[in-house]
User: Fold these one by one.
Assistant:
Number 1:
Amino acid sequence: MTPEEVLAARDRLVPDVVAGGLRVLFCGINPGLMSAATGHHFARPGNRFWPVLHLSGFTPRQLKPAEQEELLSYGLGITNVVARASARADEISDEEFREGGRLLTAKVELLRPKWLAVVGITAYRTAFGEKKAVVGPQERTIGETRVWVLPNPSGLNAHWTAQTMAEEYARLRAVSETGGPGPEAGG
């Protein structure tokens, strides 16, 4: 893929990988240009989503972005807070994030996953007006769907290593497999 083809993907949409009743619906901030150019989520080389998903035990092997549909067989899916692609998340306005939060809420109400996992604390805080939110399970629910904020797997997020991210993702995996604590635990 040429740099021109990647740049031409600005503002494109990447289709969600979703189904009703998922165990975990992962929610990225917004697609990057490589994801928009390929049509695959978390496609930029250096993004740690796919390795971390495997290291945390969500998938039995490391999937490639082109294999994203396989997630559905594990009860997993992917969407984004903001649908349009950009080179960087800081190109998305606070209003776009808030509107994305409203649209995401409607999507979650329709699809009813057990868990919504937002991968990016700043995006979560802005989209849902939760300025003091921290990584981990949230008090907020959307219908019966629990919410967990995970670290952003972007290679630019130097605060988290692949291993420390995998540990946080594994906390969610363990709870999602057992029903875990929460207002609708086991139900």
Number 2:
Amino acid sequence: MATNQPSFPDAAKFANHVVNDVEQQTGHRLEVKDFDYSKRSQWLRAAVLGANDGLVSTAALMMGVGAVKQDIKVMILTGFAGLVAGACSMAIGEFVSVYSQLDIEVAQMKRDKMRGGVIGEGRELEDEGEKESLPNPVQAAAASALAFSVGAMVPLLAASFIRGYKVRLGVVVAAVSIALVVFGWLGAVLGKAPAVRSMVRVLVGGWLAMALTFGLTKLIGSSGL
């Protein structure tokens, strides 16, 4: 069935025509705001860092417990406890931090408003835009907790279905290593940094965290403390 809807180019011309008419009638120039991709990059980079934190801390915790306890249930419960505790800690820390930043920015806006005196129409529109750009503590806390949980799920899922002790540890290390490489690459791309250097740095850091936790826990456990 045929429709009378305009094609995409016609719709664009119609939108431009409407904007021109409004500008002529009101005497004000309408500006179309472009999407701020820098904010998206910051959020994505923070999410990658949060996921990397959940990955490394949970994997190291599981490896540490695995150094003295070969039972799969103990290892999984330890990892799950680390996931919940870490996600809550990340969420609370992010909420407090972003809320403090929000208070500072709101206070600065009030000081600017008092110094500005009478606010015109242009200033009101500017204030509305500033309010929309203010950080959201709840959103930041939720994103941080979710990112941490996603990273922590990697070692948990890798160890959940493997009964053999040595095989389980090897699979956890392999899965975490792959995830570290991926997170390192994403962090490099979003941060405009060299990819290979970033991947190696993240991978070596994750290995050191797991090795130190495993070795120190093994040492303390063998000493009978």
Number 3:
Amino acid sequence: MEKIFVTGVNGLLGTNLSVDLLENGYVVKGFLRDKSKFQGQNHPNLELIEGNLFDDLTPILKGVDTVIHIAAETSQNITNYMDYWKINCNLTNQILTSSIQCKVKTFVFVSTANTLGYGTINDLGTEIKEIKSPFKFSFYAKSKLDAENDLLKKKDNIKLIIINPTFMLGPFDTKPSSGKIIFMGWKKKIIFFPPGGKNFVYVKDVSKGIISSLHNGKSGEKYLIANENLSFKDFFKKLNHLENQNSLMIKIPRKILIGIGYLGDILRLCKIKTNISSINMKILCIDNFYDNKKSILELKLKYTSVDYAIKDAIKYFNNKQIK
């Protein structure tokens, strides 16, 4: 049986991926800081390893066939680029170097769709389009892109695959992370929504795409795992329909969002941590849309509806009484 080492195994994607890998007959070594926070099920082929990713991982990676690196700094309130770089770029390079030293066969880096050029509904973003504003000014997206570029320099030394998922929804979102968007509209009498849009994808489809890439993916290639392009208005209309809500929907004008963003910039200049910034507000005002043809053709992915992703996430939130 193939042995897989997974970082960030207790996150939204990591937990779902570990479950799916085990169901597909893989042996999984899951790396995390605190075993007590793991939400997946115990399994005879699952080994949870506590530690710090900056430690020497070579003893752990010996005998491992594949490394899937998910762990990342994703906080939006950090004001210093180097705080992203040391985790998302420098650490990633260290893990790749250790993987090569231990003769790991395949290295999968889970990045983000935002390192690629987004598009409109009539001209979708693809794997070959370059990052553009406002994401080129996002410290998070820039750190991920810098990591991608560094990794690709070593693609001749190991089978290297880059996965670029869009906005994931589904179960095991314990924080919640991306699932916060559901709480913005779920059980609300009034829903305030920004003027832009996103590509949404079921987290289980991202997991399936990663697993498929182990055998169907090509070294040195990037794969967008993306499904449905929706304006924020259409997303919340979908949520209203699925939950039999009749919420009043109010669009937030772009000028107001950008103005709030500049206030956030001032707070950041004062070294006050906040998720609000002009860059983040501008991101909410664009149609951040992507194409999934490559993943369908090469990874043989069949996508699940975003309706199901929303319902599965809400089912999980209800079961865990997450509010």
Number 4:
Amino acid sequence: MTDDLPHTDWIDLTQPFDGDVPHSAALPAPELETINDVDRDGVNAQWIGTPTHVGTHVDAPRHMIADGATIDEISLERFAGPATVVDVAREESEPITVAELAAAADDVRSGDILLIRTGWGDRYDCEEYKRYPWLASDVGDWLLEQGVKLLAVDTPSPDRPRATRPDGWDEYPIHHTLLSEGVVIAEHLSIPASLAGTRPTVFGFPLSLRGGDGAPARFVATPTAAP
């Protein structure tokens, strides 16, 4: 019986999803349509059409690595476990350095999920959301050194926004560094300030799309980390 289950405080880390979610100009907006109506048809049903990289989602290595693993090939263990939550709050679109991240993430452990809070998730419905802070190019190597298994950010990407890239900029250094080593990336999370400095247990299971380069996911956290 459900009354016998231990009480758990669940914290939703997922941004709401609809046809107006922020998305890259390179991708179409998702579409939602009611195709059956309960008053007319006896049931309600919706049709959903969406790119794999809008809303809260996970990037599989196949997203940018030609022979990388697809989302359905990745072990479920990769998407759940103890996490480190770091707060590197920003008011401007600017880089986050290795030194700053290392100071804020002094308790990160091998095998952790790393949640990076910039505060930008609070601007999800604002125009300025697309001009977000990003991780400096060498942060990817630092993350590999720490043994992080999943990187999750409250921005559209851990890499520099398209709107602020200078000529000749390597478009996706963090993506290439992590995905080439099998470290998955989650984007567009909502990470509350109350989680900063804690070690919750995080679950973020994506849809098992066959051959998928990524997939929408529901991310949640519980306050106490698993052993």
